[in-house]
Amino acid sequence: MRILFYVFLLLPFLGSIHAELQFKGLLQKALYQEEIMGDLSQAIRLYKEILQNHQVSKEIRAKALLRLGFCYEKQGESEQADKCYKEILEKNKDIPY
What we know:
Blueprint: H1 2-37, H2 40-52, H3 58-74, H4 78-91
């Protein structure tokens, strides 16, 4: 009975850990598409998929935004890249640079 209590107590944490691992995996897939395959449109799609989810940690969100900005720069879309970089700075004011 006690074990069941602890399992229910830990369930919310296990869900968030699982989600975090999923997003890290998705980030790796996007990096692979960007850096190894050179498929910027696929990488952009994956980075945007990460950013659309509200469960993503601040760290992964910042990494996805940074890489998304790099993709836009590679495509010559400097305005889109600037938007990504500005969003990183605005949403991470608590992090020293």
